[in-house]
Write a structure and sequence with these properties.
The protein has helices spanning 11-25, 49-53, 72-90, 102-113, 129-141, 150-158, 173-177, 185-191, 211-226, 243-250, 267-275, 290-294, 321-331, 348-357, 359-362, and strands at residues 2-8, 30-36, 60-62, 94-98, 117-121, 144-147, 166-168, 200-203, 232-235, 259-262, 280-282, 298-301, 315-317. By secondary structure, it is α/β, with parallel strands linked by helices. Strands 3-2-1-4-5-6-7 form a seven-stranded parallel β-sheet, sandwiched between helices. A six-stranded parallel β-sheet has the order 10-9-8-11-12-13, covered by helices on one side.
């Protein structure tokens, strides 16, 4: 029996790996462990550990990695310490990490330095800002790569990763997006007491490399929303450096009947609301990944998603009030074509399982190799 340890630090990465965990839990030849840390354990962001507990996974371990200094290096150090200790307790055969978060980097470091196979979900992509440095660093520390598309696979090959270690499975959240697990719109709206007939989604995150001016950007964004006429479902940002500026700006939305503000939403409920929204505005990857699959118009603000795989019909604007106002003025007439093949076909969990069931993957050399292209 192989022991597989999944690491999750945010609601976003959990949405990506949830279907993979659920699939492996049904198999007799895998024992699954889930290491929960980061935003999941912070009440201000909705204490999303609750969402993980609702899944009734067999082995869930929680570790508080938040530091009052909130700098990424100290969070990284604390996460490494906690994860390393846990790994010595369970002795996993593989650590599965996702994306470009600091917790992801911690998982890759712990695995690679302790002779444990590290599998990276959605490596080889372009994140923009400091996240890109983390994503590519994780890829170089990882032994196995489960990528979303052929472009990502090609980038990993350019980075010297061996072809035998790269598996194209699509983006795992697509599994849930088109599954029968989503509630209907009435159920989602009733659950969160949303009384709008029409609404848009707001997801705006801090950009750590723009910390010095993030307060101004957050205030301009909120001012633009207040001067607009649409109804909005607002979801708190992630907990990166600068998030407090956004949370402070959101206080201006309190008691305004056009806004419903939430620390977090259950992933399936969020997808239902997104699917039925007028548009999504902000700088979340949900506007790059999930929204195009549903054919939802997108206003992408600022630099956070710069250089990502972006569809040409996304409306991009800067952080200025005038720029956001212009984008909002044309969004109602803006139409997009739903994406069908950029990030898989909704069977990532099956492809993931098939890869792990083959003996070859377990014989990959823990000693990393560089393959010249």
């Amino acid at each position: 029996m192989k022991k597989i340890l999944f690491l999750t630090g945010t609601r976003a990465d959990f949405g990506k790996i949830k279907s993979l965990i659920q699939t492996l839990e049904k198999q007799d030849n895998f024992e699954v462990f889930v290491f929960v840390t980061g935003m999941h354990l912070q009440e201000v962001y909705g204490y999303t550990l609750i969402e993980i507990e609702r899944c009734n996974f067999k082995n869930v371990f929680t570790f508080e990695n938040h530091t009052h200094e909130t700098t990424m290096d100290l969070t990284l150090a604390k996460t490494i310490e906690g994860l390393s200790s846990y790994c010595k307790t369970i002795n996993p055969d593989m650590i599965v990490v996702h994306g470009d978060r600091v917790e992801t980097l911690a998982g890759a470091i712990v695995g690679s330095l302790n002779n444990v196979l590290v599998a990276h979900i959605e490596g080889g992509e372009i994140s923009g800002t400091v996240d890109e440095l983390i994503r590519h660093s994780v890829s170089k520390l990882s032994h196995i790569h489960f990528v979303s598309n052929l472009q990502a696979a090609k980038r990993l090959s350019q980075m010297g990763e061996i072809q035998e270690s790269i598996f194209t499975i699509g983006s795992p959240d697509i599994d849930i997006m088109f599954s029968d697990q989503l509630p209907d719109l009435k159920t989602a709206k009733d659950y969160y007491k949303i009384n709008f007939d029409d609404f848009a989604i707001v997801m705006f995150h801090p950009v750590t490399t723009e910390f010095s001016i993030m307060k101004e950007y957050a205030e301009s964004f909120v001012a633009s929303l207040l001067n607009d006429h649409h109804n909005y479902i607002v979801i708190f940002p992630n907990n990166d450096l600068g998030s407090q500026f956004i949370l402070d700006a959101y206080k201006k939305l309190k008691d305004n009947p056009r806004f419903r503000v939430f620390p977090s939403l259950r992933f399936e409920y969020f997808l239902t609301l997104l699917k039925n929204s007028q548009f999504i505005i902000g700088n979340s990857s949900a506007g790059i990944r999930e929204a195009p699959y549903y054919g939802i118009p997108i206003i992408n603000i600022g630099t956070r998603q710069q250089n990502r795989a972006i569809h040409a019909d996304i409306i991009n604007t800067d952080y200025s009030v005038s720029g956001i106002k212009k984008a909002l003025s044309i969004i109602d007439s803006h139409k997009v074509q739903g994406s069908v093949d950029d990030f898989g076909e909704g069977n990532s969990n099956e492809l993931f399982l098939q890869s792990l069931q083959k003996s070859d993957i377990w014989h990959l050399n823990n000693q990393k190799q560089f393959r010249d292209s």
